[in-house]
Amino acid sequence: MGEGEADPPPPAEKKGAEEEEEDFGYRLFPDRNKKPQSFLVRSLFTFHNKCQLMLRLTLETNPYARLLLEALKQSGCTVFNDRHFSCENCDGCVSGGFDAATSQIVLCQNNIRQQSHMNRVVTHELIHAFDHCRAHVDWFKNVKHLACSEIRAANLSGDCTLMNEIARFKFGLKGHHQTCVRDRAIRSILAVRKVSKETAEKAVDEVFDACFNDLEPFGRIPHSKADAKRAYRDFQNRDRYTANL
């Protein structure tokens, strides 16, 4: 699974090679293997209700999410709320994930408590969904493909804005945004794949330049909501510009 905001879990005990090879991060999303609960049962859980309300607000008002939803639709991958989003309980170290096997975004209702966090996680996972739609991404076997999408998600979702980095007590000047993107991409890979840190770092470094500079569908790095709104307007006007060429 693609991953949202995460801290890498503690190192797991070594198991058989076959089990290691088949672990694609689903251990972090235990509700993926459970039978769906009835609406009545789910409605009794405050976390689930709050998650659904915050998700709806994000999809209706957040410029990052609105741009990505429109880009997905234009790419032939229309997103439907009930079909492509699922609020679930997750492991304590993750906030969300993209399940490529079902083309579904998982939102960790027990870990997302604030609207700003929901905005960021939905945007992050919609970038994974956009990459899944437009390219033949081998999420499960090619760590470079995963690394590329994680770089793009960290770069374009607002994960590495100045305010978020200050909240993490991380400061820097020249090249700090690139450093943040690289670090968060590596952390995301380590959270959902049983690979060494060296393997994750190598994969990120080998594709970093190309994937960091791939700004689709934003056309720019949106460092703020204002940037995202401008990117959204530019995206809506693309057809008008090309029609006049």
Q: What does this molecule look like?
A:
The chain has a 4-stranded mixed sheet with strand order 1-3-4-2. It has helices spanning 17-22, 39-43, 46-61, 63-74, 81-84, 115-134, 143-156, 162-167, 176-192, 197-212, 225-236, 238-243; strands at 2-3, 85-88, 96-99, 104-108. It contains 12 helices and 4 strands. Strand 3 (96-99) and strand 4 (104-108) form a beta hairpin. The protein folds into 2 domains: 24-136, Zincin-like (2-Layer Sandwich); 138-223, no CATH class. It is of the alpha+beta class. Residues 1-23 are annotated as: Disordered. GO terms for molecular function: metal ion binding; metalloendopeptidase activity. Pfam families: Peptidase_M76.
Summed up:
The chain is of the alpha+beta class and about 240 residues long. It contains twelve helices and four strands, in the order βαααααβββααααααα.
